[in-house]
Amino acid sequence: MVKILFSCLLMISLSLSAQINLGTGSTDVGAAPVSTYYGYSYTQQIYTKQEINANAAGSITGLKFYLDPSMSLTNSSDWVVYLGHTSKNSFSSDMDWVPVSQLTQVYSGTISNNNGVVEVTFATPFAYNNTDNLVLAARENTPGYDTNDNDETLYVYEGASGSSIYFKDDTIIPDPASPPAGNLVSYKSVITFAGLTGSSLPACPTIIYPSASSGLVPLSPNITWIASPGATGYKVSIGTTPGGTNVVNQQSVTTNVFTPSTPLAPDTNHYMRVIAVGPGGESAGCTEVMFKTVPPPPANDDCSGAIALTVSPDMNCSSTAQGYTLGATDSGLIPDPCYGEPDDDVWFKFVATATEHHISLNNVVSIGNTTDDNDTYFQVFSGSCGSLSSILCSDPASAVLSNLTVGDTYYIRVYSYYGAGSNQSFNICVGTLPPPPVNDSCSGALVASSFPYTYVQADGAGATNNSGFITACSNEMNDGTWFTFTGDGNDFTVSVNMPAGSSFDPQIGVYTGTCGSLVCDGTEDQGLEGEEETITFTTTAGTVYYVNVGDYSGFTDNLEGAFTINITNNNLGTSETIKSRKDMQVYPNPFTEAFHISNADKVTSASISDMSGRVVKIISNPGTAIHAGELAAGMYMVTLELKDGSRQTLKIIKK
Fold first, then answer.
1. Tens digits of residue pLDDT in 434-466
2. What is the pTM of this model?
3. Which of 145, 300, 501, 650 has its CA 20 to 30 A from that of 614?
């Protein structure tokens, strides 16, 4: 009897100690395993066999997640949790969800914050094969969200790129059987897998930077990896041949960051392996990572070495040059009147072939020690290297350069906006704007005489703002290109689509009256850069309508882009819903303290969201004026819920 009791106690003790902890110590927060800062969410995370590092196949009996003990989960408590095996090491795109049919639901119920721990116990253990990677999915269904210092709540730790994918929204409840496009992130939940016993050898570290097959790695890189549970140290080896150690030979490191004491050779393939060391020995079978270092300091480091650019005859950047700021030094020329830290400026030059040119930086990639920083800046000069005069500053990646002298040479210096550690690679192009299109002004509007009408505006970049902005509607806009047709009493739809990769953010304006005295009939500006705009409106038989397609801004003359316009006669008769939608406007735009809603009697509620989708203000039964002076300066989306059951979203800018 004593032996049986002792045996039972031993089994219970082993069961309680059988757990694997990952990410311990991190207090960073994120939208995993669920988002607590949005109403609804669905998240999938991948934990590799390598980092789980179980000693054998076994049954997972539950999970633990971690957060600050003081944080609330009142509106984030309804969880459904799934587990499954996968061959994926990471998610490759925002739609790369693991099908829910390949997952097993292991929990459904209410959770709580128990002194900083959320514990999920399975009714039926999940059998982990210790061969595949593990995918963990969770859906949160409680309406509303928990403010918790206006951020997410649950602890996460840094993983490899694409470790997790999540969708979160305040109104859309994601269906795991058909989830919408999500967001890829490199973090994953700080977690405990109950029921598994870890190997006596520490797991092979997962290298975060530099990633496998990456290029343009600095000569003194900050090599980082995910700390291996149970590791007391690491050994780093780097060579210039596979398996080589001629650069670094099993260098002992006590943290998960390592910088070689001697700069690496430039423009060279390097092969690196990191091994974890623990009380039980060293990790085995760790993968070698190959990366390539940056080339030598750029030859165009100074004005005298400026690379000559060939001017493209159009906006298609048929002639481009590659550049990078890594390794460049300060030319000693202060940026005034421009801004930023030109400690890594590189130089280009071109000969003007027209009085206007479009300069653009494309394919900007962060390559410095400061990751995910693609903020470049460029400055244009006239004159010569010994006597330069600044004529343009641009923080945006493209700008139009005007008042040039054909045949003169102009200099461009490109640099990282921020200081040490911030560097980028890029392509640079000097394009030629097309001449103003034939439909640049209202008086030259192209006539749509048969429907459906389609026109490809390839020369939109040549449009001028004529005598100023179009102010007939409360939501003002650029004067772009023009079209006209005569109504017949039916509903008409105007849609504008941009080519792939376009940065053009159009607005559609529809007017009656005359070109010299336009009357607003409707306007639409719901989409962002490159997104379609569509407006439907009811016409009056015999009335002439003018359609303007221009940049959305009512206060900055921005460049129009290429687009395709479609005008369709719907032949559907009057639509009260369409009438109410076209009448809805917010003004003034931009606003300072408050903005107004036209026809506010048709609105049941309004909400304001920032450009990440976060709802920042909700107003029930709004009046004509909405006070929002507390918002930070920037662009927002105002969503109006109408009494006819429809919804309209408009862009507005807070000054």
1. 999 999 999 999 999 999 999 999 999 999 999
2. 0.57
3. 501
